[in-house]
Amino acid sequence: MMPQPSPVPLRLRREGRCLHVLLANPDKGNPLNRALIEALHAALDTVESTPDITLLALAAEGAVFCDGMDFGEALDTAGDAEAQLRAAVRRFHGLLERLTRLPAIVVAVVEGRVNAGGMA
Q: Are 34 and 86 within 8 A, CB to CB?
């Protein structure tokens, strides 16, 4: 049986000088999984390469802003689970570092529950 593709983990919407980034996997609690982390890196790429974006507004669909890191994803992956977890955490840490250096103001519109790394 083929694995089902993950839903698109976020949506982007440009409004003037603002890039709205919406976590868009509410049925799963907007988990920090590989797909979301990579999509967030891509959103930051957009901000970094578009000088007239001066504000990044991060929000989420659903009652949960973010349920934190999806550690189960690494455990469900063939291979070394510990190495997969370490790689995911490193990639997430890199995302947080990029957010601190972003050439735009970052605002998180947090509504709902937030757990673990989703609070960072």
A: no
The whole-model pTM stands at 0.87
Apex CA 51: angle with CA 48 and CA 53, to 5°?
85
DSSP category for residue 78: S
Q: SS3 for 26?
A: helix
Dist CA 60 CA 13 (whole Å): 13
Q: Which residue has the tokens 């349920």?
A: 67
Alpha carbon distance 64, 51 (integer Å): 31
Centroid of chain to Cα 100: 15
Structure tokens at 1: 């049986």
Which residues contact residue 90 at a Cβ distance below 8 angstroms, ignoring those fewer than 6 apart?
none
Which residue, chain included where needed, has tokens 């190495």? Answer: 83
CA–CA distance, 103 with 66 (Å, rounded to integer)? 24
pLDDT, one tens digit per residue, over 41-97 is 999 999 999 999 999 999 999 999 999 888 787 677 677 878 888 888 899 999 999
